[in-house]
TrEMBL record:
<feature type="compositionally biased region" description="Basic and acidic residues">
    <location>
        <begin position="8"/>
        <end position="18"/>
    </location>
</feature>
<protein>
    <submittedName>
        <fullName>2Fe-2S iron-sulfur cluster-binding protein</fullName>
    </submittedName>
</protein>
<dbReference type="Pfam" id="PF00111">
    <property type="entry name" value="Fer2"/>
</dbReference>
<dbReference type="Pfam" id="PF01799">
    <property type="entry name" value="Fer2_2"/>
</dbReference>
<feature type="region of interest" description="Disordered">
    <location>
        <begin position="1"/>
        <end position="21"/>
    </location>
</feature>
<feature type="domain" description="2Fe-2S ferredoxin-type">
    <location>
        <begin position="21"/>
        <end position="97"/>
    </location>
</feature>
<dbReference type="InterPro" id="IPR002888">
    <property type="entry name" value="2Fe-2S-bd"/>
</dbReference>
<dbReference type="InterPro" id="IPR001041">
    <property type="entry name" value="2Fe-2S_ferredoxin-type"/>
</dbReference>
<dbReference type="InterPro" id="IPR006058">
    <property type="entry name" value="2Fe2S_fd_BS"/>
</dbReference>
<keyword id="KW-0560">Oxidoreductase</keyword>
<dbReference type="InterPro" id="IPR052914">
    <property type="entry name" value="Aldehyde_Oxdr_Iron-Sulfur"/>
</dbReference>
Amino acid sequence: MEPTSRGRSGEGEGRAAGDRSTLTLNINGTDHTLTLDHRTTVLDTLRLHLGLTGAKKGCDHGQCGACTVLVDGRRANSCLLLAVAQDGARITTVEGLAADDRLHPLQEAFLERDALQCGYCTPGQICSGIGVLGEAQDGFPSHATAPTAPVTGPVALDAAEIRERMSGNLCRCGAYPRIVEAIGDVAS
């Protein structure tokens, strides 16, 4: 077998035909059919192939949350997801949250509470916050959920619940108190 020449992004001209697949991703309500290298992440697909730069590449290891998007309504670190494994998935990025020129309620709450500073982590924080709201509404408990809480129905989102559920999203500026307040505003 002859070695292949690969460029910096791993998409060299010597690639074997079996290293790429054609897939369809529904991004913010629009179907996109793409042919991608099997190693391409959802984050790189969004940023490099579709020009959607809201999700940020922070750590590229799933530890900071800057790349958080919603996949079929659930939050996920897009830097850890291979695009080929998401064929047919519905992916919502921060760019797809506003509807009819109106911001999502959590986006509005972030602005009202001044829940950002540099803004780098904000798209991931907002997508994760929307995921938190959905998880709590669906009754998914967290480590902070009291063991005596009912096992059916929504989980009440107090500050401790929100902090626990958002712990995978880091903010280098330390805007955490305002982020918790913004999510709490929308939860109530």
